[in-house]
Amino acid sequence: MRKRGCWEASGRWLRATTFIVMVCGLTLVPGRALAQPEVSGVIGGLLGGDLNNLLEGTSSLKSTFDNGPLYGFRAGWMGGFIGLEGSFVMSPTGVSISGNNLPAGVDAKVYYGEGNVLFFLLPGPVKPFLSVGAGWHSYDFDVSIANVTLSDDDAKVQKAGWNFGGGLKINIKGLTLRGDVRDHITTVGADDFGLADVADELGITGEQTLHNVEISGSIGIRF
Q: What is the domain range of residue 182?
């Protein structure tokens, strides 16, 4: 049984993310008078492994969201044509994950803590935007192995990942309404699990790229 290897790659990701956030934060300083802090609550769903089923018409959007509801919050600083925000979202009841060689129907509780830069495409109260960011991704896989006692950390993967997407933001006086579509991307390998037997059970022999598409709406307050 192998235990988790070093975290050097994750450290490099975090240092790169910190640098990006610092640079983007500096770009907001000259426009401070026009920028506003915002806090919003998020609700939606993660398509995860149900994305292919949705495209093929074998599942509905409602059943997909029932399988992977998503909750969380975002807080940031918006000004002019750029914004900077941090977010924490989770799917506490589990979402179906699919990768290149992952078996169908594998469930995992998912947590994303990320920092994003938003690029607003138009001025005014109605703003379409693009978004890109990175942060910490956590997956708690629901898996059991015969004759093996698993600890709480053996079936968990916690590492750096990134996301990209876009949406529409509408400002109404002190309120903001927003819709987002984001693809959360995480590269997972056998060494990322606390116990190598878990990776073997899931069929992960090399690196796999997990895609979890978030579709969410949020209501926030601008200060």
A: 8-222
Residue type, 213: V
Is residue 1 one of the residues assigned to a domain?
A: no
What is the reported pLDDT for 84? 97
Residue 2 forms part of a structural domain: no
**Cβ proximity of 87 and 131 under 8 Å:** no
In a domain, 146, yes or no: yes
Rounded CA separation 181/185 (Å): 13
Is 132 in contact with 82 (CB distance < 8 Å)? no
Nearest residue to 138 (alpha-carbon basis) of 112, 162, 99: 112
pLDDT exceeds 80 at position 12? no
CATH number of the domain at 66, please. Answer: 2.40.160.20
DSSP state of 81: T
38 and 76 in contact (C-beta within 8 Å)? yes
Residue with tokens 């059970």: 201
pLDDT tens-digit profile of 30-58? Answer: 444 468 999 999 999 887 655 555 556 66
Q: How many domains does the chain have?
A: 1
In sign, the C-alpha dihedral spanning 38, 44, 46, 51 is negative
Domain assignment present for 65? yes
> What's the pLDDT score for residue 191?
80
- Token pair recorded at residue 128: 């379409």
Mean of the per-residue pLDDT values for the chain? Answer: 76
Mean pLDDT for 205-213 is 79
